[in-house]
Amino acid sequence: AQIGNNNSHSTNVFARNKKQELKMADNLKINKIFRRDDTPLTQEQEAMLSQVRAVQTTPRDARFPSSNQAGHCWNRYNEWLLCLKQTDDAGVCQPLRYHATSICPAIWTEKWDEEREEGTFAGLKVDK
């Protein structure tokens, strides 16, 4: 006697087909929203489009594979501080600050900035 579900193969095929159907439906929705149109954009629309294209966040970091990015945020902030400590040049470290502020909630970075000013920050200490 065979033990198990004889329909497991057909169930997997059904699930794959259902996923493909959903993906196709999503593509159709996206195509309706972002359809290709030959009408030229106004200068204001072009400016807005270039701003949207320029938006970036911190690059993916293999040390933080989970969806909870709190540790990634903390590390990015401290990497920025380490740069400040090593170079004493805020301009050189600006990209690291940008990465930190792009992944961290603003309330956290503001709190950490205040704590650094007060001398109570738990992370890397940077002399001013």
Overview of the structural elements:
This protein has helices at 8-33, 43-54, 70-87, 90-103, 106-118. It is mainly alpha-helical and 128 residues long. The radius of gyration is 24 Å and the shape is extended. Residues 1-5 have low confidence and may be disordered.
Summary tags:
128 residues; mainly alpha; 5 helices; 65% helix; extended; disordered N terminus
Task: Offer a quick outline of the entry.
The protein is mainly α. The protein is built from 5 helices and no strands.
Outline: extended
Distance between the termini: 77 Å
Helix-strand topology string = HHHHH
Mean pLDDT: 79
- What integer value in Å does the Rg equal? 24 Å
Helix-strand category: mainly alpha
Query: How many separate helices?
Result: 5
Largest sheet, strands/sense/barrel: none
Estimated share of beta-strand residues: under 5%
Helix content: 55-70%
Beta strands, count: 0
Low-confidence stretches: 1-5
From the structure provided, what is the oligomeric state, counting identical versus distinct chains?
A: single chain
Mind sketching the topology for me?
Layout: H1 8-33, H2 43-54, H3 70-87, H4 90-103, H5 106-118
Helix pairs in contact: 3-4
